[in-house]
Write a structure and sequence with these properties.
Blueprint: H1 6-15, E1 24-28, H2 34-42, H3 59-62, E2 67-71, H4 78-90, E3 92-93, E4 102-103, E5 107-110, H5 116-119, H6 127-133, H7 150-164, H8 175-183, H9 189-204
Parallel strand pairs: 1-2, 2-5
Antiparallel strand pairs: 3-4
Length: 224
């Protein structure tokens, strides 16, 4: 699901691997149009399309010797999927508008909030690409299924938010606030928890964090 920390885990895999001294490059496949995404991933040569005024190195090439993290890989176009499949098979690619074949040593980590297996065929995700990507699968459970992590994450986010907002000490959190945070269902997962803690620190300042600092959706006993 969105907000579970897929990017953080991808980065930790990179840091813990033999590629840790290489670059870690991230692309959100859902944030760009198919044309722009292809150029962003593979690069382009001057004149490849309107606005291509100079050669551009793509993210795949920038991550040579390291890791390229493709978030929301299910959003890749059919052409983008074909190019990614070729790279995974042969470790070669061409920039957009170029015939020169390039080779790089880039490890791919891909993530999605959709079930790729169910997208094969009808919704256009390539079966061969799915099996190329699905070498080692890591499931990121939603926060509601690991409620024991909520207090630990809240403490960490509280310390980070205090530092970002220039506080000399970490604000204290009332027990009722802790209880309400622990009971909430967190549909937005870790990202939502982090944002709520940030809000509390901004509103409370150097004072104690009380129930009045929580957003309205957390002030009822009924979890969403």
């Amino acid at each position: 699901e969105s907000g579970t920390g897929k990017s953080m885990i991808a980065r930790r895999i990179h840091v813990a691997s033999a590629r840790s001294k290489g670059p870690f490059v991230e692309v959100n496949c859902a944030s760009l149009s198919p044309t722009l995404l292809e150029s962003e991933l593979f690069g382009h040569c001057k004149g490849a399309f309107t606005g291509a005024v100079k050669d551009k190195v793509g993210r795949l090439e920038s991550a040579d010797g390291g890791t390229l993290f493709l978030d929301e890989v299910s959003e890749l176009s059919a052409e983008g999927q074909a190019k990614l499949l070729r790279f995974l098979q042969d470790k070669v690619f061409e920039r957009v508008g170029e015939i020169k074949t390039r080779a790089v040593d880039t490890r791919i980590i891909a993530a999605t909030n959709r079930d790729l297996c169910h997208l094969i065929g009808g919704e256009g995700f390539r079966e061969d690409l799915y099996y190329r990507l699905n070498v080692a699968e890591v499931l990121m459970p939603p926060l509601r299924s690991r409620s024991e992590d909520i207090p630990l994450l809240a403490e960490r986010f509280l310390a980070q938010a205090a530092a970002r907002n220039g506080l000399s000490s970490i604000p204290a959190m009332e027990d009722e606030v802790k209880s309400r945070i622990a009971r909430y269902n967190w549909p937005g997962n870790v990202r939502e928890l982090q944002n709520v803690i940030e809000r509390c620190v901004i509103l409370a300042g150097a004072g104690r964090i009380t129930m009045e600092h929580l957003p309205d959706r957390l002030l009822t006993d009924t979890a969403p």
